[in-house]
């Protein structure tokens, strides 16, 4: 009888634990579903818009002087946040390769920014806002140079950052005879240094990062023009597939910011001209 009594007590305790665990799980699931169904309301309630970025100037980065997030995309997001009734922006940093996985799995994050190109493959994973601005590769040369057109590269050695799409483009140019050779570097500042020290004749790189660093550091370099980009991209903000209300609210503000030229002013602040401006309002999600 005592053995049966002990078994009954154990079964009752196990049942209580199971019920409690089930309630906790259901509460978590319900909470996540509530956030996903109305993230816009959740953002307003917490009073902070949380973005994720890979901390790349001039797109979205932590200013070393103020320890605050800043950059083209952050400035745009601050304007959007005001429209949503939120005054604070919080930025979390992860490697770019992890951005989409983090956005779709970490419920504390609202949107992803970092000069993110809108592509068909990425649109299978997330939604994108309407386009913010355009981006492409650029050829950087000394302000006084014998290279005035792409055709002048035939006998030139160019610098390129290893592991980028621009390295692939440089490989293609070498095979086609467009350039004489190329040298790989770990960073864009290293490429700039090599150009100024005449180790290479030109650099092939991300146009916005290149032009921003030239503008910021007042370097004796320039972007080669005229030049027709071979890898143009359109930039947007990445949003979860389920956050339709938030996406619509953001697109409403983006439309206003294009009409009153706010985005153009932000681009100009970072040394970027009209060639990066996207005037048309095209649905991207």
UniProtKB/TrEMBL annotation:
The keyword Nucleus does not apply. Its main location: other. Keywords: Signal. The keyword Signal applies. InterPro entries: SBP_3_CS, Solute-binding_3/MltF_N. It comes from the Bacteria. One of its GO terms (cellular component) is cell envelope. CDD domains: PBP2_peptides_like. SMART domains: PBPb (SM00062). Residues 48-274 form the Solute-binding protein family 3/N-terminal domain. Belongs to the bacterial solute-binding protein 3 family. This is Amino acid ABC transporter substrate-binding protein.
